[in-house]
Structure formats: C-alpha cells, structure tokens
Amino acid sequence: MKKGSHCTPEQKKNMSEAKKGCTPWNKNIPCSEETKANISKTLTGRFTGEDNPNYKNRGENSPLYKTKHKPETIEKMRVKKMGENNPFYGLEHSKEQKEIWSIDRTGEKHPSWIDGRSFEPYPCAWTRLLRESIRLRDGYICQKCGKTEEENEERLSIHHIDYDKDNCNPTNLITLCRSCNAIVNSDREYWQKIFEERNNKGGRAT
Ligand SMILES: [Zn+2]
After folding, report:
1. In total, how many domains does the chain have?
2. Ligand 1: centre distance to CA 169 (Å)
3. 180-199 in b/e burial notation, b at 16+ Cβ within 10 A?
4. What's the CA-to-centroid distance between 165 and ligand 1, angstroms?
C-alpha cells in the first residue's frame, strides 16, 4: 500500500477481523523513556488547530451540538466517577483556596445568592454535596472553637442546629469539629439558640 493512503472502512474491518485474538506485537515490550519522548515529540502539535480532524466540528457544527445525554447515560457517567474514580478523590483544597472562599463567597458575593433566596427551605437531601457546601460556606472551620479541618485531622462534621435530622435547610446546618459536636449534644436549648443567632448574623459562636 502506498504510504499515507487510507484504507476503506471495509478493508479496516477485514484487518481487524483477521487480527482478532492475536497478541499485539508490542505487548509486554517496555517502552523506554527515550522512545516515549520521541513519540511525544512526533505527535506534539500534529493534531492541533486546523490539523485536528475535528477542527471544523466545533460549536454549532459539532454533531453533538445542543444534544443532551440520556438520563441512563448521565447515571452511568456519574457512577463511573464515584469514590476512588473521582478525579478529586483524596485531594484536599489548599489552605489559601479555602481562605479565598471563606472570605470572598459569603452572603451577597456567593454565586448562588439571589436576594437571600438561596437560604429558602428545600426538601431534605442529606447528600455529600450538601455537607460539602456547608463546610465551604463555613470556611472549613469549626464554628464553635475555630479549629480548621487540617487541625482536626479529619473532615469536620455537619451539625443540625435544631437537632432535627430531617431539617436540612442550610440555615439549620453548621460546621463543627468532632469534640464540639459532642459538647453540643448536651445543653441543647442553649446551643440551639447560640447557633441560630450565629447563622442569622454571621460570625462564630463562642
Ligand atoms: Zn470545634
């Protein structure tokens, strides 16, 4: 075959059928760092910009433009990215990043702030995302003693201020470390009042 000429789909299919079950020629042959570097050098820039076969298929020209995934597909993708497969699994945000969030994204600066409407009650969904959003709102800091997540050496807990586990309204949730969470289990009325005031006004309970 002439170098650079293309096979017809029929030819490709025949070749793939013929090779089925065979061990690939390069299986178990270790690729040296030099070879890898060479391959990478050869391929770099080859498919960028207009050289990319999909170059003209961007935006409105994409065959997937404005199409939506089926619910089953979304579920499959979601499951695939759970737990250890999640690219964020085991990763921690840097202290600086958490500080930026705790300072810059409170109240009216919060992206989901619409005249305070983001704090309206909604049906309880005790999800990891909800708990994470409360930690984020509270700057990853125990709202009673001020311990950070790093100092606590484990994820901070989310406490239900009115002790009602079904009330997952963000105004009823607060970030606490393990020891403070244990403390607020007694003197419930006292702590409920303290935290309710704190969540209405902002600032830490002392
Ligand atoms: Zn604490």
Report:
1. 1
2. 21
3. bbeebeeeeeebbebbbebb
4. 20
